Amino acid sequence: MTINRRTLLAGTAGLAASAAFIGPFGMRGALAQAAAPKFKPEEGASLRLLRWVPFVAGEEEAWNANTKAFTEATGVEVQIDQESWEDVRPKAAVAANVGSGPDMVMSWFDDPFQYPDKLVDVTDLATSLGEQHGGWYEGLEGYAKQGDKFIAVPLCAIGNAICYRDSHMKAAGFEEFPSDTAGFLELCKAMQANGTPAGFPHGKAVGDGNNYAHWLLWSHGGKTVDEAGKPAIDSPETRAAIEYAKALYATFIPGTESWLDINNNRAFLAGQISLTANGVSLYYAATKDPAMAEIAEDIRTTTMPVGPVGQPVELHQTSTLNVFQHTKYPEAAKAYIEFMFQPEQMNAWIEGASAYCCQSLKAYADNPVWTSNPIHEPYSKASASLRPNGFAGPLGPSSAAVMADYVLVDMFAEAVTGQRTADEAIANAERRIARYYR
């Protein structure tokens, strides 16, 4: 898809939405303070961006509208290629290693650390944006910074929260959603008995599968490695997490061991499950289909239950913008990213995403989208509360590889399905972790 001056009706709609957003919510003061562009595109530049397929139409429309505005302001045309969530990672890795393909990519988690020497140093850009807009959230900054150098620009956190059918919870005998893991298990048992079960992905789902597996481990006090990067998965806490996961899995709809990111959405909207964890996109998918009006009215959201560790510990999907060294137009790429982070564009994108994308810069935390609907509230603090996937060790090539290889996801899947005993699953995970943390 090429964004240019002559096309993209959706972009026109997005610009209109942006204009509507600015006036009522008093953003004009912020717009007046937008800094003059620091980066100037090369003569004759054009760009190609690889991004993940959007789950919220308004997010894509706002991004495309902002891209169209960039083209009109600079003359630089931007081609946007979309890939499924699972396919972005390998395609970006191939582009980095062969030195051709898209100029930029919206990557996942700590993927930039898999090929840092293939990325443009964007420290000047990221530092400038941080100074302009209140600074970066620490967790998101960690996903983009290697030492003192930014190898990527933090884009957003895609919040993950429990989505459930309120009437089905109450029919199972619960007036309020349990706040701890023990109560959550009892709720899932009761909902299964009522024929309205839960379902969480145990398959290789980039977002939902990793979010669930890391929550299982962390909520029970487990960790993949210690502060020094030494494998620490073999622990009583990990065994407790696996036993809990097995008990939960017994209440799930059959087949969750093969689920990818889309499957729990489909099962929930089809009425096959009544409880899962997802982005706010699940709610909006229901509101847009008249046939799902009853489901949409019944949906509630809340944060993940707190486990024995005694505090909220959640992995939220994170995305960064990376610029490949093979690009012919690095300054144009920086100019594009700089433009997208200015108040008019960024506020319109956050609003268009309808609470799906949580800001990476603190100045945008007061975007009114977060208080416009109670459904949004659990997603509003994702950027501030996220725990990096490499916990408790540092982020880097090793943590990126463990995540990309689905080590934790596989460990829990092997144990809950009976493919391996708990001890065997842990030993297999430890072997795989040690291979990357040499």
TrEMBL record:
<dbReference type="InterPro" id="IPR050490">
    <property type="entry name" value="Bact_solute-bd_prot1"/>
</dbReference>
<dbReference type="InterPro" id="IPR006311">
    <property type="entry name" value="TAT_signal"/>
</dbReference>
<dbReference type="InterPro" id="IPR006059">
    <property type="entry name" value="SBP"/>
</dbReference>
<dbReference type="Pfam" id="PF13416">
    <property type="entry name" value="SBP_bac_8"/>
</dbReference>
<comment type="similarity">
    <text>Belongs to the bacterial solute-binding protein 1 family.</text>
</comment>
<protein>
    <submittedName>
        <fullName>Periplasmic substrate-binding protein, ABC-type sugar transporter</fullName>
    </submittedName>
</protein>
<dbReference type="GO" id="GO:0042597">
    <property type="term" value="C:periplasmic space"/>
</dbReference>
<keyword id="KW-0574">Periplasm</keyword>
<keyword id="KW-0762">Sugar transport</keyword>
<keyword id="KW-0813">Transport</keyword>
<keyword id="KW-0732">Signal</keyword>
<feature type="signal peptide">
    <location>
        <begin position="1"/>
        <end position="22"/>
    </location>
</feature>
